[in-house]
Amino acid sequence: MKQKGIEQFSGKRVWVIGASSGIGEACAKALLSKSARVVLSSRRVERLNTIAAEYSQSESLVLPLDVTHAEQMQDAYQTILNQWGGLDLLLFVSGLYIPLRADQFDLEAAEKTIDANLLGPMRAVSIVLPAMLKAHAGHIAIVGSVAGYSGLPKALAYGPSKAGIINFCETLYYDLLPEGVSVHMISPGFVATEATAQNDFEMPALITAEKAAQEILSGIQKGEFDIHFPKQFSGFLKFLRILPYPIYFWIVRRFVKI
């Protein structure tokens, strides 16, 4: 049994959460260029309005929100229902990255990271899922990270938050496949964004946000569950997951110079 893809985005109602920059902005623009109807959400309303102004106002809807506030997300979803009657795809891209290592561990920063990166998607899914289950249709796509595959330096909170996304998506897929609702787990490698600009180390296989958007939308169209890229990097990290820990840690220490 294979889950459904979206053959054409034209006319599809898509909610992009995290649309104001980086991968989310690139996805929103790509979807709008494909004649999708796109809800643009993030905290930065000015950035959302700038994006919306580049396209037909009838095809976009700006609904600012903070993913750590469930009531804001619920209000936004109700507006979508009132104006567009429903949703075909939830694309959750919003995320928080605060570099953390054990010698400078900050619990408050860790809590903010988990709240935004793990509980944020859970809040969004809880809101859109009832209608999708009732219709036996719809798509849920969540952007995680290859940092969720296994422990990596400077990701003491970010990595666990993305590991949680992997487990969450896997369980969603298992539960929703018989119900006709598609799940897309998205695991990018290094993408040139405001978040990765914080890194002070060389990022292998770095790609643009536009290339990431292309990979994401292509995977959703094909109905893929596991959308990971760039393959030469994400595939290598998948391989590391199956190695014994002594070998894994030796490789990480040898090749990750931070």
UniProtKB/TrEMBL annotation:
The keyword GTP-binding does not apply. Keywords: Oxidoreductase. InterPro entries: NAD(P)-bd_dom_sf, SDR_fam. The keyword Methyltransferase does not apply. It holds the Pfam family adh_short. Belongs to the short-chain dehydrogenases/reductases (SDR) family. This is Short-chain dehydrogenase. It comes from Polynucleobacter paneuropaeus.
